[in-house]
Amino acid sequence: MTSKSQPPKSQPSKSQTPKSQLFEYQLDAASVLHQLGTDAATGLTADTVARRSNSDGRNELIRSQTESPWTMLWRQLTATMVVILMGAAVVSGLLGDVREAIAIVAIVIFNAAIGFRQEYRAERAIAALEKLAVPTVTVRRGGRVQPLSARDLVRGDIVLLEAGDIVPADCRLLESIHLRVSEASLTGESAPVDKDIRAIATDVPLGDRHNMAFMGTIVTYGRGVAVVTATGMNTELGRIAAAMQTVRRELTPLQLRLERLGKVLAVAVLAIVAVIFSLGLLRGESIPEMFLTAVSLAVAAVPEGLPAVVTIALALGAQRMLERHALIRKLPAVETLGSVDVICSDKTGTLTENRMTATSFDLPQSHIEFASVEPGSPLGSAIQQEPDLALLLLSVSSCNDARVEKAVPDASGLDDSLHREEPVRREEPVRREEPVRRDIGDPTELALLVAAERWGVRKDEIETWFPRVAELPFDSDRKRMTTLHEMPSSDRAFPPALAVLEPWRKTMRGCTGVAFVKGAVDRLLTDCDRAWIEGGFVSLDDALRHRMAATSERTAGAGIRVLGVAFRPLDALPTSVTARSLERHLVFLGTVNTVDPPRQEAKSAIQQCRSAGIRPLVITGDHPLTALHIARELGIARESEFTRGDRALSGTDLDRLSAAELDDCVERVAVYARVSPQNKLDIVQALQRRGHVVAMTGDGVNDAPALKQADIGVAMGITGTDVAKEAADMVLLDDNFATIVAATREGRVIYDNIRMFVKFTLTGNSGELWAIAIAPLLGMPLPLLPLQILWINLLGDGILAIALSVEPGERSVMNRPPYRSGESIFGRGVGRAIGWVGLQLGLLLLAIAYASWSRGQAEWQTFVFATLAFSRIALVLTMRSDRESFFAIDPRSNPALLVAVLTTLTLQFAVLYVPGLQSVFDTAPLTEGELGACLAASTVPFWAIEVEKTVIRSRMLHNRSGGE
Ligand code: ATP
User: Fold this and answer.
1) Range with the poorest average pLDDT among 45-59, 173-187, 231-245
2) pLDDT band at 816 (very low <50, low <70, confident <90, very high)
3) Alpha-carbon distances, residue 142 vs 39, 152, 380, 414, 424 (angstroms)
4) Residues near 810 by beta carbon (within 8 Å), at least 6 away in sequence
């Protein structure tokens, strides 16, 4: 297979000695291992790892150009408006008041510093999130298999690859079991490439190096073992990355909308400012003074920082979500989460604990409780009574990739607990020297191993008698797994624990191979034509098939997971191993029934979804009845739906529906079972066609399209594949449904906070603009001086508004419907507040200004200045919530706001009463009475909003009681 586009040819990597100019793919596996000083069975030693990571650095593609803090600060200081303002200040300083000019420059720099600090924090938060998104790999080091962050890989590491992994570095393959890799990202070739381990004699292009796996490519099928030959920027991907330009971070939809809005507002503000400037000149004000006022006003009122505020709110929000085990991979997701109105969830592990335990076995003629064997009873004693069960347990232990290891941790200093996305579970806590029990692999398979061991059938023993020669790995389309084994020759007698299988071996005489199959029982039964009953083959007629199907349906209906088991005798080991050749004419053995309890917290999370206007759906690969049972227990499928005859739709049902029928179904059906990844994609698309904003979970390699299609793709952190994580917007570090709900709550809070920020800053700014624009029309001089305008801007937009962005959220945030996607930021009262509260504030300031100015009071501007500053404090306090009264909110719930309010008050009193500052800010000390009057007047907009909130609350109450 040739590649469509050829990347630059490989240079000899560091692993090669100068003597040999051959590339790794041209050498046999043993030579590559030798060159890299490693061992396939044990991996690298801790010393070599330390040395190599020192010399080669981390295994990462160096991010080309993150903005340095200095550049960020410089950008803030050199924003066009800021530069114009500083220029104007300097000019006016030269012409007149030098102190004022210096104060203006100081305030501007201080403002820029606040902006810089926020942006820097956001940048750091995003960078930290990006680091966490690095996948984990399974490596063999110091003789044991362990999970490791892909960044810590070094040359010579032995990595274990399986379907769904993203290849973590360039590797030479040592073992390939049907390994198939999609190299589209590197070569452009869209069909996955079959991999093997044979050396290639000639020099071939990347796409033809079938014994290599390259960083960033995707394992789509099978599994393999490989040795790392190059890491980081020395990989093929690294070479391309080095040549690429920096990737621009994309703006989120809300940021884009706000950026556009900011531009419109800027034009409007500049037009108003131009009018104010002209009116001032007509009144005979000096040109430099008017110019300075106009520019100060423009700097204060143009909301140029809006998109940045969104970044900050999203980045810090993502950080808070991480504390709740939701890792955001794509920042816009934080914003979209606030609009999610359907959550499609897997069952296993998300709604249930993924703690499988085998409870019973159903053989064609008998039902055996797992608990009928006491733990600690003599190994193998019980199984002697149950030869048919012994065969079933032999099958599930052989057709099984899980492992239970007992290992003493080595001193390599590699502590698995450091890795968040840990695929390996172990019992905790342990002291370092004690043997650690490490359960590795799929929980279903682990449960089978544990069950078999309890009955005395041990995997390690079986493996020596029935060596595995080939396999068809589990995939979520086939919903089964098959392994092919050699039959042991009858010359050697079985050990006592397996002696019970002797009659079966006799029956299999003449067969050199056997295939063991386990998987979804309903489908398995259709591929069986015989059953194994009491030591012999029995034809699987319709009656028997129906009886077995009915038994498993009954079990599934009780919420128990039923796994079917079968085998296939083979006269000769087949040369080609395919589902078609192996998974037919099977002999049915029985079922293993496992329970997986629902998660405790899922039930309340589902209730929360309902009150928040979010519809939870289950989309599972499991049996419809098992799925329905769990859905019912958790409140996803409700009783009333059952009485109306509602049911779980299966993948087969879905395949039969037209697009229009599916669109109709998705509004009614809550449980989808035995679905394929394609069904998942169809369901998401149908929901989206109906206007829903969908969050969808997934873990498998084939789930990527559905995860990408969903508005919020959610991957499992523990059980998910790299591919699913890569495609997802969010990774659940604890695989828990409740975490998705917590993240949607956080998304709503963040959106609320952004809205409040916009509402607060624009209301204050519009009040200020009204007052300054109308004053000259009443024949008054400008009611605020340039420095005062900038000061108010610093207090209001710089200190108070920022504290609003960390509000913890209204109590009722999950008791109202989600935001509509693309909903105007001015909706739900924001535009109204900016309009009428802004106007009210402007008129209030004008009234104060006019009353005192017309009476000839010298300190009339100080009244306006003080009232405006205090009113912004009052506004921030009431604007914390859209509905809840200021008096009902715990003042301690946002400590940042408390600090901001106290700081603002202190600073404002300082400019009013500290003599040095009075002369800079042109303020006159207010008497107690005057101060009291300013304070009282400043609360007018506060009370207006509080009254409005009371009306809103009583209307909501009325609507609710009317609806009941
Ligand atoms: P969910 O989609 O909610 O995670 P699930 O884990 O049951 O549920 P899949 O992993 O797609 O979904 O499994 C679908 C079916 O495939 C299971 O119901 C089971 O019958 C079968 N199955 C699951 N794991 C294995 C396995 N390791 N080997 C063989 N068959 C399996």
Assistant:
1) 231-245
2) confident
3) 10, 15, 34, 10, 17
4) 749, 752, 881, 882, 883, 884
For CA atoms 392, 397, 401, 405, give the dihedral sign. Answer: positive
Greater model confidence, 489 or 225: 225
* Atom nearest to 626 CA in ligand 1: 18
| Residues 6+ away with beta carbon under 8 Å from 87 | none
H helix intervals, 491-541: 502-507, 521-526
Which tokens sit at 766? 């519009």
Dig out the tokens for 598 from the structure: 């629902």
Q: Collect all residues with Cβ–Cβ distance below 8 Å to 150 and sequence separation of at least 6.
A: 59, 134, 135, 136, 137, 168, 169
* Cα of 720 from ligand 1 centre, angstroms: 13
Distance (Å, rounded) from C-alpha 590 to C-alpha 677? 27
Catalytic residues, by residue number, are 346
Write down the pLDDT at residue 962.
58
Pairwise CA distance, residues 922 & 937, whole Å: 21
Cα dist from 207 to 7, 184, 257, 443, 461, whole Å: 10, 10, 43, 36, 41
pLDDT digits (tens, 9 = 90+) for 382-437: 667 788 998 999 999 999 988 876 655 444 433 333 333 333 333 333 344 455 56
Nearest of 211, 212, 217 to residue 192 by alpha carbon:
217
**Residue 528 alpha carbon to ligand 1 centre in Å:** 19
Mutate to test the pocket of ligand 1, among 479, 675, 678 (most ligand atoms within 8 A of CB): 479
Residue 520 alpha carbon, nearest atom of ligand 1? 20
Cα–Cα distance between 796 and 788 in angstroms, integer? 12
What span, in angstroms and rounded, lies between the C-alpha atoms of 261 and 457?
Answer: 69
Residues 766 and 748: their CA atoms lie apart, in Å, by 27
Q: 862 by DSSP, 3-state: which? A: helix
Give ∠ CA 30-32-33 in degrees, rounded to 5: 65
State both tokens at 581. 């050749």
As given in the structure block, the two tokens for residue 636 are 């996803």
Question: pLDDT at residue 286 above 70?
Answer: yes
